[in-house]
From TrEMBL:
InterPro entries: BFN_sf (IPR036104), Bi_nuclease_dom (IPR003729). Residues 2-133 form the BFN domain. One of its GO terms (molecular function) is nuclease activity. It comes from the Bacteria. This is BFN domain-containing protein. SUPFAM superfamilies: Hypothetical protein TM0160.
C-alpha cells in the first residue's frame, strides 16, 4: 500500500551539511527524511517557493516534454529502499496507456511539484526506513528522527538552504 505524503520542508543535515527533503504523511505525524543532492534540493526549493527562472530548468524541461508528448504525470511513488538508497517511479498516462519511469526520488518529487501530482511512499519503505539507521551510530540516528518528528513551522524556516 502507498501512503500519500506532502513536502514538510527542506533543510540541511546539521552533521553533514547535506540537503534533506522532509516528507510527511498527510494522515499522521510520520515523517520521512530523504537526503538529496544540492542541485535537486535547489530545484525542489525553487518550486516550493514558486520562484521563476529566466529559462526552463531541467525539471521544467521534463514537464514541458511530458506535456508535449500528450502525457500526464499521475503520481510519483518512492517504491524501495535498498542499500541506503531510495528508488522512485513516475506514473504517467499517455493516450490511455500507463507508462512508468524509474527515477531518483529527488527528481520525481521535483517533477511532482511542477505537475501538481501526488507524492506517495510505499508502506514497506516507511517500515524499513524506521529500522535502518542513516549513520553508523544508531543512537544518533534515532535522535535525528525524534528531532525531525518534533520540528514545527518556525524550525523549518522558509525552505532556505
Amino acid at each position: 500500500m502507498d501512503i500519500e505524503m506532502k513536502i514538510r520542508g527542506l533543510m540541511v543535515d546539521p552533521s553533514t551539511n547535506a540537503p534533506i527533503v522532509i516528507l510527511k504523511d498527510v494522515a499522521s505525524d510520520t515523517v520521512l527524511p530523504i537526503w538529496v543532492g544540492l542541485y535537486e534540493a535547489n530545484a525542489i526549493a525553487l518550486e516550493v517557493e514558486k520562484s521563476s527562472t529566466p529559462r526552463p530548468m531541467t525539471h521544467d524541461l521534463l514537464k514541458n516534454l511530458i506535456h508535449g508528448l500528450n502525457a500526464e504525470v499521475q503520481r510519483v511513488v518512492v517504491t524501495e529502499l535498498r542499500d541506503d538508497t531510495f528508488y522512485a517511479v513516475i506514473w504517467m498516462e499517455q493516450n490511455g496507456e500507463a507508462v512508468t519511469l524509474d527515477a531518483r526520488p529527488s527528481d520525481a518529487i521535483a517533477l511532482a511539484l511542477r505537475t501538481d501530482c501526488p507524492i506517495y511512499v510505499s508502506e514497506d519503505v516507511l517500515k524499513i526506513a524506521k529500522v535502518i539507521p542513516n549513520t553508523a551510530d544508531s543512537a544518533s540516528s534515532e535522535e535525528l528522527r525524534r528531532w525531525l518528528e518534533n520540528l514545527n513551522d518556525e524550525d523549518m524556516g522558509r525552505y532556505k538552504m
